[in-house]
Design goal:
This is CGNR zinc finger domain-containing protein. By secondary structure, the protein is mainly alpha-helical. It has helices at residues 10-13, 33-42, 54-76, 82-92, 112-127, 161-186; strands at 18-19, 27-28, 98-102, 105-109, 135-137, 146-148. It has two domains: 10-156, Orthogonal Bundle (Jann2411-like fold); 160-193. The chain has a two-stranded antiparallel ribbon. Strands 3-4 form a two-stranded antiparallel sheet. A hairpin with a 2-residue loop joins β3 (98-102) and β4. Bound molecules: zinc ion (ZN).
Amino acid sequence: MRHAFPGGTPALDFPGTLRFRHRAEPREDLDSPVSLGAWFREAGITVDDVPAGPADLRKALALREAVHRLVRAAMAGEDHDRDALDLVNRYARKPTPVPQLTPAGRQVDATVEQALAHVARDAVLTLSGPDVPLLKECGNPECSQIFIDRSRGARREWCAMDPCGNKIKAAAYRARKRANGLLTAGRPGRPPA
Ligand SMILES: [Zn+2]
């Protein structure tokens, strides 16, 4: 599967793997250990998929939700949840993946724990750095993706045009057409469309 990386950094994209958190039923992108292993590669943390098992996935989801809570608290200017803070800091102290140059190019040997340590350190750096005021949630009411808005004038509205920006713009277009249709129908001497 192809994961999405609109957040600008792993600390935002990893929580984003539980998509549409504002829906009654969010969409789980990390629905298997294989999907988790692929995420690390697609995020650029490793070169190959990381071998993962069910226990790895459970740990990854626990860390993901802890990172998510810290990001939300940072955006709201609230104190961090102690348990979330402890978990993220515990992972941030662990060894991270080690890149090596080989005749075949870059090689990164990593366990799930090391890859999660990379995400945790990124959360520490992101949430203590200059990007915190730039954190923004996607303008699609169903979408809960948070991204770093580095656009000029901080005018970025969507995590990505596809699907969020396109979906909202299409809905606005239909609403305008409906409004125009009502006006047209009210005019005398015009056949209904
Ligand atoms: Zn979005």
